[in-house]
C-alpha cells in the first residue's frame, strides 16, 4: 500500500508576547483560539492553537510564545510562507482590512493564482489566495463575515537548503504528486482539499535561524492511529530516522528532519480538540494534560494572562 497524506495537519511557529499573538491571529485574521494549553516539554510556556470553528486538521496554526524571545531569521530549513485559502471574491476584503490595520501587503502571482502577501507582528510570512476548494469556515469574529473568513491552509512555500532532496521527501515518502514548475517553483499536490498545494523553490535557500517569527515545524496528516503506525514505517523505509510515537493529547505525532533541513511531523487527525472541551467552549480554559494537573496553580501563576479581543481600529492595530 502506497501512503498518501491528505496535506498539512498543522504548522507550528515561535512567537514572543502571547497577547500580541492572540491579537493578530484571532483579532486580525479572525481565527478561533481553539486550544489554550502549554508546551508539554516546557510547561512555563503557552502552546496556543488557532483554526476554524472546530480546529479541523488543515486549518491549525500553533505557537510557542516565549515572552522576550529573540527574533529569528526566515530561511532554508523552514516554512517560508504559510498559505491561507479564502473564498472566491474575498481578496479585496482582506487587502482593505489589513491595510486599515496598518499592515503592509504585497501582491504576487504564482502558478496563475493571485496572492496577497504580508507579515504578522513578528515577521512571520503569510499569504492569502482565493480558491473554491475547501469547506467554508463557520467561524465569524472581529467583523469578518463567514463568506470572507479564512477556510484553512491553502498550503505552504517550503524553503529548502537542498530542494532535490526535499522534493524526494514530498513525493516518495509523503506520496504527493509533482504537478508543475513555474518561475523557479515546483508545485506538489496532496490528496485533500485544504493544505494540499506545496510550492518549493527549485534553488537552494540559505539557512535560516530559529526564533520569534519563524516556523518550527510543519505537520502532515495521517487519517487514524493505524495509518500513523504505517507512516512511521514509511518514513523509516524512505531512509529517515523517525522519532517514537509521541502523545500530544489532541493527536499522536512522529517527527523527522528531511534532507533540506525542514522538520516534518506526521500527526493523526483524531482525537481532535473536543477530547477535553465542549465544542462551544474551545479555547476558553487553560487545558493541561493529566500529568501536569497537580502543578496547575504554579503553571497558571507563571503564565501571562491573555484575552481574545477585537482589533483597536481607532489606533490601527
UniProtKB/TrEMBL annotation:
* Key words, A-Z: Dioxygenase, Oxidoreductase
The record's CDD domains line, in alphabetical order, gives: PcpA_C_like (cd08347)
The organism sits in which domain of life? Bacteria
- InterPro entries hit by this protein: Extradiol_RC_dioxygenase (IPR052537), Glyas_Bleomycin-R_OHBP_Dase (IPR029068), Glyas_Fos-R_dOase_dom (IPR004360), VOC_core (IPR037523)
Membrane-crossing ranges are: none
One example of the protein's molecular function in GO is: dioxygenase activity
PROSITE patterns, alphabetized: VOC
Q: Which Pfam families match?
A: Glyoxalase
Q: Show where the VOC domain sits.
A: 7-131, 152-269
Descriptive protein name = Ring-cleaving dioxygenase mhqO
Instruction: State the species of origin.
Output: Saccharibacillus kuerlensis
Amino acid at each position: 500500500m502506497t501512503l498518501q497524506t491528505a496535506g498539512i495537519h498543522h504548522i507550528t511557529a515561535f512567537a514572543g508576547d502571547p497577547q500580541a499573538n492572540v491579537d493578530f491571529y484571532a483579532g486580525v485574521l479572525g481565527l478561533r483560539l481553539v486550544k489554550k494549553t502549554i508546551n508539554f516539554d516546557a510547561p512555563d510556556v503557552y502552546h496556543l492553537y488557532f483554526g476554524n470553528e472546530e480546529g479541523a486538521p488543515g486549518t491549525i496554526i500553533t505557537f510557542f510564545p516565549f515572552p522576550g524571545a529573540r527574533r529569528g531569521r526566515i530561511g532554508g530549513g523552514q516554512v517560508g510562507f504559510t498559505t491561507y485559502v479564502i473564498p472566491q471574491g474575498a481578496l479585496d476584503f482582506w487587502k482593505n482590512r489589513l491595510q486599515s490595520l496598518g499592515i503592509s501587503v504585497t501582491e504576487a502571482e504564482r502558478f496563475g493564482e493571485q496572492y496577497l502577501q504580508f507579515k504578522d507582528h513578528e515577521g512571520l510570512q503569510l499569504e492569502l489566495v482565493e480558491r473554491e476548494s475547501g469547506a467554508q469556515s463557520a467561524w465569524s469574529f472581529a467583523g469578518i463575515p463567514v463568506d470572507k473568513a479564512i477556510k484553512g491552509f491553502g498550503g505552504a512555500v517550503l524553503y529548502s537548503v537542498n530542494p532535490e532532496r526535499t522534493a524526494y521527501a514530498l513525493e516518495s515518502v509523503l506520496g504527493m504528486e509533482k504537478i508543475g514548475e513555474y518561475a523557479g517553483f515546483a508545485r506538489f499536490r496532496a490528496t485533500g482539499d485544504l493544505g494540499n498545494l506545496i510550492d518549493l523553490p527549485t534553488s537552494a535557500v540559505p539557512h535560516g535561524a530559529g526564533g520569534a517569527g519563524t516556523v518550527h515545524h510543519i505537520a502532515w496528516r495521517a487519517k487514524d492511529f493505524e495509518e500513523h503506525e504505517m507512516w512511521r514505517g514509511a518514513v523509516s523505509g524512505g531512509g529517515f530516522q523517525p522519532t517514537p510515537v509521541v502523545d500530544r493529547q489532541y493527536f499522536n505525532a512522529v517527527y523527522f528532519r528531511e534532507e533540506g533541513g525542514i522538520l516534518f511531523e506526521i500527526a493523526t487527525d483524531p482525537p481532535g480538540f473536543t477530547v477535553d472541551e465542549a465544542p462551544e467552549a474551545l479555547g476558553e480554559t487553560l487545558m493541561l494534560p493529566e500529568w501536569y494537573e497537580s502543578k496547575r496553580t504554579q503553571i497558571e501563576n507563571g503564565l501571562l494572562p491573555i484575552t481574545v479581543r477585537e482589533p483597536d481600529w481607532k489606533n490601527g492595530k
